[in-house]
What we know:
The complex is a heterodimer. By secondary structure, chain A is α/β, with parallel strands linked by helices. Chain A contains twelve helices and 14 strands. Chain A folds into two domains: 17-204, Thiamin diphosphate (ThDP)-binding fold, Pyr/PP domains (Rossmann fold); 218-345, Rossmann fold. The relative contact order of chain A is 0.12. In chain B, α9 (249-264) links the parallel β6 and β7 (270-275). By secondary structure, chain B is an alpha/beta fold.
Amino acid sequence: MSTTLDAVHVPTAASPAPSRVGQKITFAKAINLGLRRALEQDPKVLLMGEDIGRLGGVFRVTDGLQKDFGEDRVVDTPLAESGIVGTAIGLAMRGYRPVCEIQFDGFIFPAFDQITTQLAKMHYRSNGRLTLPVVIRVPFGGGIGAVEHHSESPEALFAHTAGLRVVSPSTPGEAYTMIQAAIASPDPVLFFEPKGRYWEKADVDLDGEPSLGLNKARVARAGTDVTIVAYGPTVLTALKAAEAAAAEGTSVEVVDLRAISPIDVDTVAGSVRKTGRCVVVHEAPVAYGAGAEVAARVTEECFFHLQAPVLRVGGFHAPYPVAKIEHDYLPSLDRVLDAVDRSLAY
Amino acid sequence: MSPTDPSTDGPPTGGPSTDDGLVQLLTPQGERVSHPDYDARVAHLTAEDLRGMYRDMVLVRRFDTESTSLQRQGELALFAQALGQEAAQIGSGRALAAQDHVFPSYREHGVAHTRGVDLAEVLRLFRGIDHGGWDPVANGFHLYTLVIGSHALHATGYAMGVQRDGRVGTGDPQRDTAVAVYFGDGATSQGDVSEALVFAAVNNAPLVFFCQNNQWAISEPTTRQTRVPLSHRGTGFGIPSVRVDGNDVLASYAVMSEALERARSGGGPTFVEAFTYRMGAHTTSDDPTRYRSSAEEEHWRQRDPIDRLAAHLRASGELSPELEAQVAADADALGERIRAEVRAMGRPESASMFEHVYATAHPTVDAERAWFEAYESSFLDSAAEGSHR
Lengths: 346, 389
């Protein structure tokens, strides 16, 4: 599926070994260091994907890992996504913990059958005799000016499939610990990485251990008037919206879902019972999206606390548009604030 | 339609249906013929070994007919017969070592038998009480795969794991390990099978692609999948490939032994086309009279794999009437046991649908299970009547 257009050129300095405390590192480097730590700690962990070895991945997320861990553990695969996931399933049956990279979100569909028909169901159909600890890393989402099939958000398709865990980190620190938690999970995990955030830096505690696990949401910002639920790339958008709303006297609470399967209904409902208003934001199309599930669960759990219908802000029911107009498709700060205003005015 | 369409009467000629180039050690009449490359592969087999193969094939055929009857009696939802493919399965299965691992499709009852799977367990799937039925690890025999060709990739990945475990090319016959994937002529058209051939080839994986060309993918003849013999698929990927008479249990054993040895010794994958025939329907839901002729079926009945070995053993005085009667009695006993065990297989608890969805707790599953159990228990008379349904 790879084309020459995939060669995203990311300037990377030769990376010196980071000190262990409070390094300011990029989102991509945080995942790289999380993968490195997993490779160091468990000889059964191996990475598989297109261009992830010598090149270090088109986003350089696996930069330097093949050099240090060898070609048998950081595997440049043939260009066949179904083959990557299908062989990862076999490796997992043999006791390995494969971490697959799908180069871009829109390339995952050749592997859709292996993921939903085989990977998701093997534990079930074997009556628990087989576990498949496979992680599938997917750079997802838009905003980077890419060509067709390079900016999609297909997470709901996988959250709809029982047997899969679906998560998305929103910060470098979360990315660092969540990738390790995903690799440690005995269940298959779809790990959606917000590629538009790959170059953002933050302080990361490199000695930090995964604490929240893969089931829990977190309150990224406390507030009292409206709850914004987001995950992955839109958490930052939500936080910026909360900042802007605060300037106008509105207190917004931001819940970072972290996991789309399972959705941490308790944390979301706890917030909405307090605020009475809920806006869900994701890049994926709103129709049939994760936001619909959040809206339904919030309605079931918080019906008598709601002051307004749950509103959704996200992509439209149209194919991801061309780069020149993608920012009108994506949930912008203004559209999120518009939804907050509509919720308050209801 | 190709002029080589096998649905026309008479023996196969040309194209994918040619029987040219098949490795054969027993003629359809049971005459042992010499083959310079494969005689040595069977030289160690004793008359007792051959009688064992005969017995296995008879037992598996009895399992087949018993299971078909059980489906007709309403005891099974569906059944897929292996009828006619016993030699390909028993011959290749007996060449496997204990440490080898097999990825079957859904018609590999003969291979299952050679791996020590209790054939009654195979019917749990067809009775609709289990999606699997046996322990795939303990038997070195993975669960049946119903989506055609998907498991070729699992087998390839497993073989890549065997390589990483250092279980290839050590020279220790107890240690070196091969993987085998069984699939049919229809599966060769699946993209996953081609991807598996690519991954196996470039990784030099210790894997045998064992393709049972039984001439029919439900109603589609092999000519709808290929215009050349299927063994060419392997060759095209740079994988050593061989065609074998799949109704010849000795040749199937010999060819599989060679392929497994290549895999275990580090020589990489092999593609085996076992040329055979699905004598029965695709499944109990199928009606082959709609797409193939009785003349074709008769042609293949003359090549019955069990008759062939029996004729060979009788001619060499190695199969007494007493032994034949004993094997027939064993087959009857197996049929009776299967019948009794299947009828005793109960219905799983409804709430078992929530088990093993995940290996670790998943709140959505837990919440739905709790709701379902509360809903079920809300029917006050359910305990008295066993069920509200």
